[in-house]
Structure formats: structure tokens, C-alpha cells
Amino acid sequence: MKILITGGAGYVGSACLRYVAEQGHEVMAYDNLVMGHEEAVDGHAFVKGDIADTDLLTKTLKDFGADAVMHFAAATYVGESVENPEYHYRNNVGGTLSLLNAMRAADVNRMLFSSTCATYGMTQSETMSEATPQDPFSPYARTKLAVEWMIRDFAEAYGMGFTLLRYFNASGADADGRHGEDHRPENHLIPLVLEVPLGKRDKIMVFGQDYPTPDGTCIRDYVHTRDLASAHLLAIEATKEGTAEVFNIGTGNGQSVMEIIEACEKVTGQSIARDITERRPGDPPRLVAEPTKLKTQLGWEPQYSNIEDTIATAWAWHQAHPNGYTQ
Ligand SMILES: NC(=O)c1ccc[n+]([C@@H]2O[C@H](COP(=O)([O-])OP(=O)(O)OC[C@H]3O[C@@H](n4cnc5c(N)ncnc54)[C@H](O)[C@@H]3O)[C@@H](O)[C@H]2O)c1
After folding, report:
1. Non-local CB neighbours of 250 within 8 Å, separated by 6+ positions
2. Of 3, 173, 197, 285, which sits 20 to 30 A from 51 (CA to CA)?
């Protein structure tokens, strides 16, 4: 298969690009590099462009002869989405509309979409299945839900085929330590905690220790990018025209912020200073996947079930690249 990967220079997109290429598919990354890194594309075919540029996207899809698209490109910072929702709606909703139009013009009918567990919002349930009601609490998450609806309508009206993948917390790095997470600024817990043993920060801030969880800190489901990537390959192969299937991608296990800090201490062999501060507005106490549908319908078997193994891959990457990618 020939697969165009929007956001292929970003964290999850580049991990999926490498995995899918290793499995024998032809890949091309399409990214405006607003957040991504060309080095992460690893020498695969790359077009620097914006998903808002429908003409360039159409030409790229046609010239490449794409069979399918994996669509990762998006603005992802929740805080930014509160301050500047116009950018998030323009980039995530408008940009995806542009991509869908380019796909129709180039006669490409299959696409995976990176959605998020944040579309579920606040919930009391222990785990979230695909049937859990969605009630997103940030503009970022609302743009993802808006795209889910848009995609369903396109499947119905134009016979295109989609799979919507709701990720929980992407984490980890390539097992060989060559590729990993480099967001500027960083906003994910594991890389932020690892900045302490790397000597880049004095301590980690813990936002709230009074949540209704066993140790009072928020619980999340950390899924390794390699397991996200294998789910994408299964999903693109299973995507059928005229449908819009939904799958959660998570391990089904949750770790609290304190458990992540302790696991990072074990992996790095260093003690990690922390400061407890006020809750951040809008953080749900618990977001943990129910991944049964992905396992039973697509045969997904995650390789990483132990959080220390996942953190060890991230630690290897950050030690080898303390300042991230060079370009
Ligand atoms: N990382 C997570 O834990 C997580 C969880 C749930 C969902 N997601 C979703 O997965 C996708 C990938 O997330 P990530 O963590 O890899 O983010 P990322 O910022 O590392 O990657 C996004 C990539 O898209 C590119 N991009 C953004 N706007 C673009 C545009 N208009 N045109 C072309 N390229 C553009 C950026 O340069 C970047 O390389 C996003 O859609 C995100 O919403 C991520």
C-alpha cells in the first residue's frame, strides 16, 4: 500500500511512518514542520506543506499514487486551544476538510484519523469504551469530536472509508533509542519528569493531590508509540469504504502521576524532586481505555504492558538526545 502520512514529522506520526515502512508499505510524510522535525522522517519521502493547501495536497496524493492516508497533523496543545480556539478550529477542522477535499479530488478513499480520549471528557467510569458518551471539555478536544462527525458524514455521503482512533496517552520511544518525543514546549508527563534526572529542570510540578484516586493524583493510560503504530497498520488494512469505525487505543491499565514519577526514579536510578500544587482546571481524575474492541476485532496485541519498559525506551532516547532532534 502507498500511504500518505500527514503530521509524519511529529511524535506519533513519525513512529507510525517508520513502523509501517518496516512492514513493507511505501510511505510519504506531509508536514508543515510547525511542530515536527524533518530528522524524524528518517530519510523517507517528505513533502513540506500545510494541510490547508488543498492544491498541493491533491497534487501530492496524485503524484505519489496514494492508496490511503493516515492523518496525524493537528494543533494539540489544550491550553493554546483555550486561548486561541480560532487556530485550533482552522487547523484541525478546516485543515481536515481541506484534506478530505484533496482526497476526493485525487480519488483516495481510505483514511485513519487521530482522535483522542479527551473527547470523552469528565466521566465517572473506571474505563472508557467506544460507547462511553463523549463530552469534551476543551476546544482542542471539541475540534477532534467535530472532525469525527464530519468524517462520518463523508463516509455516508461519498462512500469514503475511515477509522477513527481515539488514543490515550502516547508514550515511549523507539527501542533502539534513535527516535522519540520532542515537543517544544514539552507538555507530556513522562518527558517532563525525565527532564529532572537529565538536569534540565529542578523538580516536577504535580497538579493536585486531592483527586478521588488511591494516591490523590490523576490517572492516565500510557500506550507505547510502537503499539499505537501496530494498531494503525491493522486499522488501515481493515478500513472499508462507506464506513467510519471507531477504536480506542490504550493498554487498559492506568498509572497515577505519582506512580509515573516513581517508575521514572526506578528506571533512571535517581530520585526526582516534586512539588504538589493546585489542580489545573479541566483535568479529569481518570482516563483509562477499555481496549477490548481493538483486540477482538483487529487482533491487536500490545508489546508494552509494563510502564517501566515504556519509560526505559523514553529514557534511552532522552539520554542520547538531551536537546531533542537537531532539525
Ligand atoms: N500524543 C498524544 O498523546 C496524543 C493523544 C491523543 C491524540 N493525539 C493526536 O495524535 C496526533 C499526533 O500527535 P503528536 O503528539 O504526534 O503531535 P505532534 O505535534 O508531535 O505532531 C503533529 C504534527 O502535525 C504537524 N502539523 C500541524 N499542523 C499542520 C498543518 N496545518 N499542516 C501540516 N502539518 C501540520 C506538526 O508539524 C507536527 O509534526 C494529533 O492529531 C493529536 O491530536 C495525540
Report:
1. 117, 167, 168, 169, 221, 223, 288, 289, 291
2. 173
